[in-house]
Amino acid sequence: MAPSRHPSDGLLARVNFPLYAVDMLTSRHILVAGGGGSSKTGVANGFEIYELYHNGSHFCAEEVVRHETGANVVMNFAVHSCEKRSYLCAGQEAHCQMYFVQPRIEPEENGNGIGDVKCALTERPHENGNIRHRNAPSGVEPLSNGHKQPSSAADILRQFKRVRFDIQAADVVQTDFLKGADPLQRVVRISGNGRLIATGGTDGHLRVWTFPQMSLAVELPAHNKEIDDLDFSPDSKYIASISKDAQGLVWDLISGKLQHKLQWHTPEGVKYLFKRCRFGTVEAHKDNYRLFTIANPLGKVGRQRGFLQKWDCSSGQLSQAVAIDESLSSLAVRDDGRFVAVGTMFSGSVSMYIAFSLQVSTAKSGRRILFEHAIISLPLQCVLNIPHAHSMFVTGLQFLPITNEEGPPISSDTEAAVLSISVDNKVCIHSLLQRRTIPAWMAIAFMIGMIFAVFVLCSYLDI
After folding, report:
1. Which of 267, 382, 390, 398 lies 20 to 30 Å from 190 when distance is taken between CA atoms?
2. Measuring CA to CA, which residue among 202, 235, 203, 239 is closest to residue 218?
3. 10 Å Cβ neighbour count for 311?
4. Cβ of 261: how many Cβ atoms within 10 Å?
5. What does DSSP assign to residue 179?
6. 28 touches 54 (CB < 8 A)
């Protein structure tokens, strides 16, 4: 049975606006974004950056920077780090706003606990002309992950100099041009080699820009309805696009031509729409990769069965899929390709899978699996299940990296950890503890003991 826990055990922080996007800025800094929109509701729009650490028993997060974006809600963003700074490209209405995120090192200040750690009072000009004081109340509720704050937590952080970030608005470009209605950028992605940036929105056009110059390089009328998601392949040669026109397409970026069209036999003839797509490397084979998608039934009311699917990138054929008892809203693949996570639409749950077999964490017995267009039944091994992690649908997932070139991974007793956000304003983390194995010395001792026992038995039987 899948290990599970009370949702509050994974609660890192609660902000005062709905959250729509999450990513890792560095190997230990979380970036979340969202807001209440342009209407005068009193709900802020902007970013939050948290420093993540493990205190020996659980993950904790401390707010580092809060940057408000005025009337512009941030629905999506992508980040890319260089040697001296990071680029943050955020979707704001029909435009893509670029920000420079400049790190700076500050010595740790004296204090009696984590809550006493403050960064120096600075002023940062907002792109709309507002000034935000860093020490001003942010509306973020400090949380200790559902546990009592250990007295040694401050000592852990004092061992290091602190990284702070200055966020400065830079260029902005319109990326969606829908006519007859309000245009909206729905998704933005930056290629792994840092040379291209892709955007998609309500006009259905896939636009690829040079990065960081933001000059239009390729425009493809890829879909006849709005684009829901995009993703670059790890080698930056292909890009996948999915849309509300029920099409899942893979494009060759060199030729600009369609490489694959994702097709599968839906159960009972029900029409399904792709919701999210992510490429993932094959574990221990960095040059090979596969494509993961999630799909939900169209026009169905209530809790309907969604699918997590794995596609062969060389043939464009569906290789494996698993059915889940409700519609899915978010998808993430760990950077080494070992684990996949999905978030659900109605219960706000998060599930983690082993990528190579799509073994799901939520099953006690077999389920119906779609494999190469045939329905078969396979037993599913439990990995991790977090029921009702959020009170509303999960808007974003992101694994903690283990191969991040920007810095070493956070030391912990977990095999994998995934962040989740929702419009319920919560930032959560869900970790899979290291699975226990027999030490090598114990295995050797056991084998020697068995050999000795067999030798004694054979001697006793005169064999």
Report:
1. 390
2. 239
3. 24
4. 10
5. S
6. no
3-state secondary structure 316-346: CCEEEEEEECCCEEEEEECCCCCEEEEEECC
Sheet arrangement for strand 285-297 = 272-282, 285-297, 306-312, 318-324
Q: Cβ(223)–Cβ(261) under 8 Å? A: no
| 124, HSE (Cβ side, Cα atoms, 13 Å) | 24
DSSP for 182-239, please give it.
---EEEEEE-TTSSEEEEEETT--EEEEETTT--EEEEE---SS-EEEEEE-TTSSEE
141-167, pLDDT tens digit by residue? 555 555 555 545 556 555 557 789 999
Query: pTM of the prediction?
Result: 0.81
Half-sphere exposure of 149 (CA within 13 A, CB side): 18
Q: What is the DSSP string of 272-299?
A: EEEEEEEEEEETTEEEEEEEEEEEEETT
Here the contacts of 124-132 (C-beta below 8 Å, separation 24 or greater) are: 124/67, 124/166, 124/167, 124/168, 125/168, 126/67, 126/68, 126/69, 126/70, 126/169, 127/69, 127/70, 127/97, 127/169, 128/69, 128/70, 128/71, 128/72, 130/68, 130/70, 132/66, 132/67, 132/68
Phi, psi of 393 (to 5 degrees): -65, 150
CA distances from 109 to 51, 56, 133, 372, 451 (A): 16, 22, 18, 58, 61
Helix (H, G, I), strand (E, B) or coil at 152: coil
Cα–Cα distance measured from residue 135 to residue 63, given in angstroms and rounded to the nearest whole number: 11
CB within 8 A of 367, min separation 6: which ones? 322, 323, 360, 377, 378, 380
Report the SS3 class of residue 260.
strand
User: Are the CB atoms for 250 and 238 separated by under 8 Å?
Assistant: yes
- In the block, which residue shows the tokens 């599970």? 4
Identify which of 393, 300, 463, 387 has the alpha carbon closest to the alpha carbon of residue 9: 387
d(CA 278, CA 192): 13
Three-class SS of 59-119: EEEEEEEEEECCCCCCCEEEEEECCCCEEEEEEECCEEEEEEEEEEEECCCCCCCHHHCCC
Backbone angles phi, psi at 441, to 5 degrees: -65, -35
pLDDT for 133 equals 37
- Spatial separation of the C-alpha atoms in residues 183 and 227, rounded to whole Å: 12
CA distance 51 to 321: 35
Where does residue 21 fall: left (phi above 0), alpha (psi -120 to 50 degrees), or beta otherwise? beta
Mean pLDDT of 128-133: 36
Cross-strand pairs, 86 = 81, 101
Q: What is the pLDDT of residue 75?
A: 95
Other beta carbons within 10 Å of 313: 20
